[in-house]
Known about the structure:
- 23% of the residues lie in helices and 24% in strands.
- The protein has 4 helices and 7 strands.
Amino acid sequence: MTILLTDVAASEALGARLAGLVRVGDVVTLSGPLGAGKTSIARGLLAALGLEGEAPSPSFAIVQPYEPPEVALPVLHVDLYRIESVAEIDELGLDEARGDAVLVIEWPERAPGRWPDAFALTLAVTADGARSLTANVPAPWKDRWFQT
Length: 148
């Protein structure tokens, strides 16, 4: 299924919709080129979960944790762009942390096949500058996700 996101506000609104659907243990992956809107979706999700102020991009921190009461659910916002090996991903402890948080992972292609049950969102920039979002909806999400 494909959704057209016309601007940053639409990307953030999609993230806000996701906030109402995610559960601890979920993995949401965000793929797409630089500037496609991955972080905007994550920011919308975090804002809808109660984060005040703008969430920083985790590009340099790699993992940016958010815990209640700052947000309604524990979230790890992860940016794998700077990761160079699978061993580095193992060191982050994401698989262990997954049981206690929602993982929102940018650049999951740095860890191919690692989260086969993730709700995988892929963004592409269209000719007119909008974003085309394609969702790969795994079985655990079939009863939660809806397209509008």
